[in-house]
Amino acid sequence: MRIAMIGTGYVGLVSGACFADFGHQVTCVDKDESKIAALHRGEIPIFEPGLDALVAANVKAKRLDFTTDLKQPVADADAVFIAVGTPSRRGDGHADLTYVYAAAREIAACLTGFTVVVTKSTVPVGTGDEVERIIRETNPSADVVVASNPEFLREGAAIRDFKWPDRIVVGTADERGRKVLGDIYRPLSLNQAPIMYTARRTAELIKYAANAFLATKITFINEVADLAEKVGADVQEVARGIGLDNRIGAKFLHAGPGFGGSCFPKDTRALIKIAQDNDTQLRIVESVLAVNDNRKRAMARKVAHAVGGNLRGKTIAVLGLTFKPETDDMREAPSIPLVTGLLDMGAKVRAHDPVGIEQAKKELPEIAYYDDPYDCATGADAIVLVTEWVQYRAMDLDRLKEVMAHPVVVDLRNVYRPDEMAAHGFIYESVGRPSAKGA
Ligand code: UDX
Fold first, then answer.
1. Ligand 1 close to Cβ of residue 324 (< 6 A)
2. What is this structure's pTM?
3. Could you give the angle at which helices 283-306 and 264-277 cross, rounded to 10 degrees?
4. 417 lines ligand 1 (CB under 6 A)
5. How much is the ipTM here?
6. Which of 23, 50, 109, 159 is deepest in the core (most CB within 10 A)?
7. Model confidence over 62-108: pLDDT tens digits?
């Protein structure tokens, strides 16, 4: 199969490299010349474990190529994937579809032979209809099927998620379209991934509903964590206790500082708008978003409480800034409102992150950055563990206590156990578990 992938962002680059790895002939297209030039030099614009090696291997095997000009790759393609960005539109939270529609117009003009045009970007229900209208208007004679094939990959685990998905959703009623996409994904049948064929609008809604449900699960356990703290229960055991019920499932029940990232906040916001546009209200999803926003802000108050109520003049060392480990992505990271809140309350903030410092400087230019977590902790009145990087999972606790001015640890990811922190002499606060205080 010949594939053109429009957009070399997260989804486009990972999908393009993985499709090439399946044995397909893939050309990734991006308007950004510097990005394409970098890819030609073998430089990957995003941090994703394993992606550089996957790209290099497939470029070497001549199955993967990059260009700024979509004309030839689209003309040659059996399938053209639209994987351009759909950011939140400033001001109203709707998904901004400018890039998707511009891509559709450009693709339309270059189509030859039967082609399936596939939206992989997360797009509001009905976008496929509009993409089809644009293509037919621009090129009335095009032999084209427009399908939806949403992507469910997580940053940091993107290649594994792409190659071992729980399911593949193909949204088109057209048999020829279903066949092409079925052939493209056939290598995954070895990994037992079921392909679900459905209508285009249903596929579009599946993506939003999946993200909103997962965001709801996280927000639910976060609220239970707040209650657990008040009543002296342990939220991690509660999560295990409910998660063992197959109807609930154990995943996405890890309490923390609130969800962030490029998908959950943006997609829940967009889904609420889609509902409103269709005279419906998704009150649960609206609450999830509001509760999550409040939670991120509340984390700074939690730190203030841990240091005795007053942050003025206190030095706070923040460990982990990215919205989750194994990525340098700072989009909607809980660390941003946390650090801003700490600064507002008069704290001096310094931070460490294994890979996210350069991105973090753009969001949080006013704090001090350290290359080493122990240097960052030296002289601090408290440590706040915000992102559960492996580097923070087995720290030398005695050394940490030694270098700190006061042994206070606020662990927003429940990485450590209260009893072990107490044994090492820390004052320890976590999420949804009893506080601990060492001697
Ligand atoms: C998510 C979806 O998982 C993926 O299917 C979709 O395609 C894109 O959005 P991603 O944003 O990369 O992927 O990260 P994910 O691992 O899902 O985490 C999202 C946020 O939720 C992070 O801030 C994470 O820390 C938080 N989270 C996740 C929790 O707080 N608790 C959990 O139990 C799980």
1. yes
2. 0.95
3. 150
4. no
5. 0.96
6. 159
7. 999 999 999 999 999 999 999 999 888 877 888 899 999 999 999 99
